[in-house]
Amino acid sequence: MSDLRVREAVVDDAEAVREVIHAAFGARPVLDPPSTALSETDQTIAETLARDGGVICHVDGRPAGALLFADQGRALGLWRVSAVPHRQTRGVASAIVGVAEEVAGARGYDDIRLLARSELPATMTFWRRRGYAELAREGTNVEFGKALGAEVVAATADEAHAVGRRLADVTRSGDLVILAGELGAGKTTLAQGIGASLGVRGPVTSPTFVISRVHPSLVGGPALVHVDAYRLGDGAELDDLDLDAVIESSVTVVEWGDGMAEALTTDRLRVHIARSRGGRSGTDERRVVSVTPVGARWVGTGVRRIVAGARSDAV
Fold first, then answer.
1. Strands (E), the chain
2. Counts of helices then strands in the chain (DSSP H, E)
3. N or C: which end of the chain has fewer CB within 10 A?
4. Whole-angstrom Cα distance, residue 273 to residue 175?
5. For residue 169, is pLDDT > 80?
6. What are phi and psi of 99, to 5 degrees?
7. Distance CA 204, CA 110 (A)
8. For residues 269 and 163, is the Cβ–Cβ distance under 8 A?
């Protein structure tokens, strides 16, 4: 079994990073216009590492993968994403990108962005499979982006309600929020927070026995469509609710929607609530709320910071 290790690169890694980039890009087919990656030198790589940083991967002690960072304000840019030819398709690229995402979160970035070439279909597929969405095209350059998720600890029901209010702050008409978690985890509490922030007619309660409820806005905003899919057998039964007819004009919140509601739209927020096993029963119980944005819609919204409680003007 190979020994694969990934870490942030430092200036002293410049030569190894340059070797990986040259090996990877040198093995690519000739593109028009050609990539400038082969013009990188130890000095240019060192300057980039000193300014923005990067990631390097070693397999059995030898450099096997690397990428460079580029600070883009609220987003961390990735470029020169490389794996040496004989290590491609062996998990090196996924490993370095995974570490890059961890670094981006630790540094406080909202999003990750990068450019890929449309003439390289395997590369395009790689990014899509990792959850990156196409944002724009210019010639052969395709911009991909991914909004980073957030994890928030809610020690009480009131705090969980507040997380729901912050979720609503990043939503607009047409958005889908899928709530997941065990029975009693607090999904309806979050839905109530969303409804309170949207200013809809209430009360927002568990819709288990009527499956779905529409809560009209009292402030001229989108309605809240609140669905409980717990008793539905599959996506076909969810289709019977005709949510397609209202989703574009509403914020749709589906409890127990994993595996069913994803077909409603390519862009969504998946919210998983995990209840602490060591906590007390009742309303005051520690919960970990994990928010995963899916799709291009969330890139640039600041969802990570807003859900975590930070202020942002980007919605």
1. 4-8, 54-59, 62-72, 75-83, 111-117, 133-138, 141-147, 150-154, 176-181, 212-215, 223-228, 250-255, 268-275, 287-294
2. 8, 14
3. N
4. 19
5. yes
6. -65, -40
7. 30
8. no
pTM for the whole thing?
0.89
Cis peptide leading into residue 203 (ω within 30°): yes
Q: Average pLDDT of 54-65?
A: 97
Structure-token pair, residue 191: 């839905």
Structure tokens at 123: 């590369």
Angstrom distance (rounded) from CA 112 to CA 101: 8
* Residue 63 confidence (pLDDT): 97
Tell me the pLDDT band of 30, cut-offs 50, 70 and 90.
Answer: confident
235 has a pLDDT exceeding 70: no
- Using the 8-state DSSP alphabet, how is residue 279 labeled? S
**What does residue 119 show for φ and ψ, rounded to 5 degrees?**
-75, -5
| Residue 314 pLDDT class (50, 70, 90 cuts) | very low
